What does this fold into?
Amino acid sequence: MGAGINTGLGYLGEMGSTLRHSYDVLGDSVSTAARIESKCKEYGCVLLVGDATYQRTRTDFFYLKVDDLAVKGKTVGIGIWTVLDKPYPAWRSAQKKHEQMHEDYRAQRLDDAIDKCRMLYTHFDHQMEGYYDMWIERCEYMKTQDLPSDWNGFSSQQVNNSMLNYIRNLFGSTATEKHTTDDINVIWLHGANQTSLSFRYLQMQTNFANEISINYSSMNRFQDNIEMIVDAVKGKGPHFVIGHSMGGLYALHLTQWVRVVGGVSISTPFRGSSTADWAKYIVPSYPLFRDIGRKSDPIREANEMQLEIPWTQIVTTTGSVPYHNGPNDGVCTLASMTHREDMEHIEVAHTHYETMCSDSVAEIIKRKYEHAIQLKMQ
It folds into this structure.
């Protein structure tokens, strides 16, 4: 268990729709804090602090630099730090030695960095033993690499994954190597009247290397949105697509425009919505009701498409409300979600929006992504 702390602006308050809402906090600084927290186990630290917090409190606590961490959506790393309790005066000299170790690492004086780690091993009341073990292993790995002269020690997920494989090989692990590809993009397509922030939890759990988060407006026509999405992703494939609700319909249409190697749709009404068939007369200015009706062009065109790639539809089975035509998840009917026969259906006992914070859904997405990659590499 660990904790990550970061400082910055965010959105705090009631969020969601009239059908499902919660009190939440969102924003780039919040996502960064979650990313920092996820690294506690790797670095052997109970508490990790982002650079923004460190800069504001550096004179108030006893800090040790941990690393420069790659964060999704950032082109440069952010410094992360740990805080030790009950600092003793003797720790100050060890703190300077710790800083020199990092300087040696960034300057590619890796043997000197290893020596300093071993010297520091018993300092700080042994609170940093796990960290120094990890850092020695990293330095040993870096010694096997042909590092460029301008390398500055920046830690990326690719470095961490490569180091993990190096350690496995060093100790003769017989575990199956996890195949990864740098060229496959994961495209996230949110549901109607949402944004890409709705995928925040699933993205943290899946942690894909290359991601494209699309944002579109439900006040635009379907055709206008699909053209915008195609422009945003063309020339960057191949792609693995993930779409929630209306986003799943966009994901299906996207297969006709760019190379897609697999997909997961979540609670997508592929047969359309009978509720939208009558709601469009009540709110005629709302494009969504015209685009999602059972006889709408997007639904009709989707029904004419034949999938030839692995695709999984996650079917949400709870949260039924009385004004939809049949059993539903609060938004889409089960009949509409299970309409297509050319994709796998996996039922989960969630409502339409609970899926977005579900560990089981995250695991399904990861499995299907790995399956698509294995097929591509064959």
User: Anything to note?
Assistant: Residues 3-170 form one domain. The radius of gyration is 24 Å.
